[in-house]
């Protein structure tokens, strides 16, 4: 028998009569007899090999029996799901509905689909899997980390009785093309795992966003966008989805951001990487091991006027005064690559959001981006000229741009180059609204301000030194 009506047949006088096998007893509860098996490749050492108390799995259903409603598609409403929580010995199950009619809709058999996240608190809300509860409020959003998934689905059965039983085995594994990067712990450097990020060329942070009709919907950021680190054993692990650039031998750049410390980088040369694989990286915090500064800080700091701010001699990513430097979208810490991920922030890049201050991310906590007010004060307090060559405090330039010379002591000067001989732009750390922030345009003879510049555009950054 089953929890739904079964269409059986018997022959009476040559005619086929239906037999109603619907159970007459009231179903009062639903219990679970579900085994969870990690089918991931055991050679991937960073894959979770043992369950921990509190681990949570979401299970969704594709039923094989059509409910009686003519509007049904055959799938159980996505808002009806089971949450499995590991108690140290077994999995405790909870159905999202207490309506016994929903128990019956599971039928006597069907296919179930599961997804597991390794850290953070994930809830299912309004059709989407949503992360909450991280210690850093910036992370309250999508969980871009590794996850296990039963993408093809696993069969389940239902038995009858006052307490119906849902039975089956979930076969969960890493999704295709997922890969790990792992750095061993050194000293106490990795206590705050949520502040470590790793950018790898050709690797995309990814997450499961929702489930519908037998399909998990995933969301990916662009290749090279930073992956958040999470504690694994005595170290930090990062995970993401490979793009096709790893299928043939090529060079791939790594950038490690550790909040408050200068970013470090290294390049793996002429390598390929299979999916569902792990790479152990030499710890850059213990010795160089091929790692070096991701960007050099400006060699000189220039104090402009009476405000006391010390401006870098040249733009972030530039190695001399004539170079425009590296272009970034506002609020992003990896160089602009032509792709937009719509990660629109609404906060100035300070406090919890200082991790998106690109000057701080690359140069460490002694440096930061200037605010809108600080650029305005420097601009209004200086005389601007547009030579194509000349000298400023600390260096000489030979490209077109704007020279700003302070009107008050100390009467130092700095130079802002254009990127093409006629134009350039500079971001500030001040956010104006959800999709626009103040920036300054570098023309051939002056700086111009815009309070509503689309943050999906790319601009340079002039860092300010705030160390001792």
Task: Describe what you observe in this structure.
By secondary structure, the protein is mostly beta strands. A hairpin with a 2-residue loop joins strand 30 and strand 31 (395-397). The chain contains three helices and 38 strands. The model is unreliable at 1-24 and 70-75 (pLDDT under 50). 4% of the residues lie in helices and 41% in strands. The termini are far apart.
Write the layout of secondary structure elements.
Elements: E1 7-12, E2 15-20, E3 29-38, E4 56-63, E5 82-86, E6 91-95, H1 100-105, E7 109-116, E8 121-125, E9 128-132, E10 148-149, E11 154-159, E12 163-172, E13 178-184, E14 196-200, E15 203-204, E16 206-212, E17 215-220, E18 227-228, E19 230-232, E20 235-242, E21 250-258, E22 264-271, E23 277-281, E24 292-293, E25 301-303, E26 310-312, E27 328-329, H2 358-363, E28 367-368, H3 372-380, E29 382-385, E30 390-392, E31 395-397, E32 401-406, E33 413-417, E34 425-427, E35 436-442, E36 447-454, E37 458-459, E38 464-465
Parallel strand pairs: 3-12, 13-23
Antiparallel strand pairs: 1-2, 4-5, 4-7, 5-6, 7-10, 7-11, 8-9, 11-12, 13-20, 14-18, 14-21, 15-20, 16-17, 19-20, 21-22, 22-24, 25-26, 26-38, 27-37, 28-38, 29-32, 30-31, 32-33, 34-35, 35-36
């Amino acid at each position: 028998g089953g929890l739904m009506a079964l269409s059986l047949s018997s022959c009476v006088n040559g005619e086929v009569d239906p037999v109603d096998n619907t159970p007459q007893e009231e179903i009062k509860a639903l219990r679970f007899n579900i085994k969870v098996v990690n089918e991931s490749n055991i050679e991937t050492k960073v894959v979770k090999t043992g369950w921990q108390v509190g681990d949570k799995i979401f299970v969704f259903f594709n039923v094989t029996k059509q409910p009686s409603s003519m509007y049904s598609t055959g799938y159980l409403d996505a808002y009806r799901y089971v949450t499995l929580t590991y108690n140290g010995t077994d999995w405790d199950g909870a159905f999202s509905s207490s309506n016994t009619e929903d128990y019956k809709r599971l039928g006597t058999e069907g296919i179930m689909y599961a997804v597991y996240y390794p850290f953070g608190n994930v809830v299912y809300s309004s059709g989407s899997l949503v992360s909450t509860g991280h210690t850093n409020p910036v992370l309250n959003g999508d969980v871009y980390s590794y996850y296990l998934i039963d993408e093809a689905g696993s069969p389940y059965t239902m038995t009858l009785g006052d307490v119906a039983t849902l039975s089956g085995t979930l076969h969960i594994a890493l999704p295709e093309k997922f890969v790990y990067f792992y750095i061993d712990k050194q000293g106490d450097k990795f206590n705050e795992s949520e502040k470590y990020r790793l950018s790898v060329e050709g690797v995309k942070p990814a997450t499961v966003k929702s489930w519908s009709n037998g399909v998990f919907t995933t969301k990916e950021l662009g290749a090279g966008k930073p992956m958040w680190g999470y504690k694994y054993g005595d170290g930090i692990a990062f995970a993401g989805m490979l793009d096709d650039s790893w299928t043939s031998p090529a060079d791939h750049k790594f950038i490690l951001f550790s909040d408050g410390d200068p970013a470090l980088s290294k390049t793996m040369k002429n390598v390929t990487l299979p999916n569902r694989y792990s790479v152990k990286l030499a710890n850059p915090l213990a010795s160089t091991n091929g790692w070096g500064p991701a960007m050099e800080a400006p060699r000189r700091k220039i104090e402009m006027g009476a405000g006391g701010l010390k401006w870098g001699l040249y733009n972030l990513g530039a190695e001399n005064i004539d170079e425009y430097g590296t272009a970034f979208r506002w609020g992003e810490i990896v160089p602009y690559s032509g792709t937009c991920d719509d990660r629109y922030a609404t906060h100035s890049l300070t406090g919890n959001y200082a991790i998106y201050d690109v000057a701080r991310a690359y140069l460490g906590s002694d440096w930061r981006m200037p605010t809108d007010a600080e650029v305005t004060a420097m601009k209004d307090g200086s005389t601007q000229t547009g030579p194509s060559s000349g000298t400023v405090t600390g260096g000489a330039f030979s490209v077109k741009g704007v020279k700003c010379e302070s009107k008050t002591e100390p009467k130092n000067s700095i130079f802002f180059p254009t990127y093409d001989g006629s134009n350039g732009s500079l971001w500030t750390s001040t956010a104006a609204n959800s999709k626009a922030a103040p920036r300054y345009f570098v023309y051939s003879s002056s700086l111009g301000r815009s309070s509503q510049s689309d943050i999906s555009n790319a601009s340079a950054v002039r860092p300010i030194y705030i160390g001792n």
